[in-house]
Amino acid sequence: CFFQDSTDNFYHLQKPQAHWQDDLSLGHKEDILCIAQCPPTLLATSSYDGEIIVWNMISGRIRHKFHTPVLTSSVYTKTSQAVEASVTQVLFLKTRVMKYESAASSLISNGPQGYVHFWSLFSEDPLVASFTPSREKSMISSIAVTADDSYLYAADKDGNVYVHDIKEYALQDPEQETPKYVNHWRAHINLILSLEVIDEDNILLSCSVDHTVRLWSLAGEYIGTFGQAEPWDIFTPASWKHPMVPYEILIDPQSMPTHPVLEGESPSLQITDKDENIQDTANCHPRFSQVISEGMEEEINKQFSTEASSRR
User: Fold this and answer.
1) At what angle are helices 286-311 and 268-284 packed, to 10 degrees?
2) Side-chain half-sphere of 266: how many Cα atoms within 13 Å?
3) Under a CB-based contact definition with an 8 Å cutoff, are residues 166 and 149 in contact?
4) Burial of 227 by CB count in 10 Å (0-12 exposed, 13-18 middle, 19+ buried)?
5) What is the C-alpha to C-alpha distance for residues 228 and 223, in angstroms, rounded to an integer?
6) Contact (Cβ atoms closer than 8 angstroms) between residue 154 and residue 161
7) In what order do the strands lie in the sheet with 160-165?
8) Closest Cα to residue 20, out of 63, 64, 57?
9) Could you report the per-residue pLDDT of 185-210, keeping only the tens digit for each?
10) CB 159 within 8 A of CB 190
11) Per residue in 133-189, pLDDT tens?
């Protein structure tokens, strides 16, 4: 159902239609998980089965229907069930939608297996590009873009935020590469429910299932957590928490840097390799082995003589 939000004129309100005919016959068969609107006439919805439908809000007709791809090689394994194909986030690249008949991608969605998909509304092959922002291939739980559609902010289920430059990305031909990486940081210790770019103030709002809501600069500088004791002013960088990070993120094991020792690899391997090199050298050069043996024997005799003298 759709209503005008203006309170100035009550004489031109259009009563909501009981239903859309296309919705009854060709609409979603599973639960609708997300909805996005692009003025003046476009509406996008996504459902649990991975289906995305773009509607004309005036006529109620379906303009496009997309099916989110799932990598068949990883759908079924011996130890796991089918990969969930649900799409929980869709958004329009509004500056591109206005360029009618353009082959550029103008709709973004998340999807299974940590992918973000770029769709074109005016080309025969609608899927223009796909990539995985998360370094751990984690599910992307929320996406947002700046007002000029230049930067994509993608959040994953581990609480990380990834920033990519998409200004020149997926404009025409299908893209095989990922967009230019800009930055990433850990904003929460658990799944991020929503990201919101506030372009007027150049800040990013994030909220998570860890019961926190935080503000960041668009560059990832930590401004503060709502409810903290110390006040902040978004126009006064000196009041921000940056360069500090939230304490629970600092002590969380997933925030620890990677290192061979931390990952369980023993540094003794280097010593073993060194010993093996010495042994190989000794085998190849018998004289070298003899020198080592003579030197050790001389050292042992010297120590024995010293101890004997001290006893006397």
Assistant:
1) 110
2) 5
3) yes
4) exposed
5) 11
6) yes
7) 140-145, 151-156, 160-165, 180-186
8) 57
9) 999 999 999 999 999 999 999 999 99
10) yes
11) 998 889 999 999 999 999 999 999 999 999 999 999 999 878 889 999 999 999 999
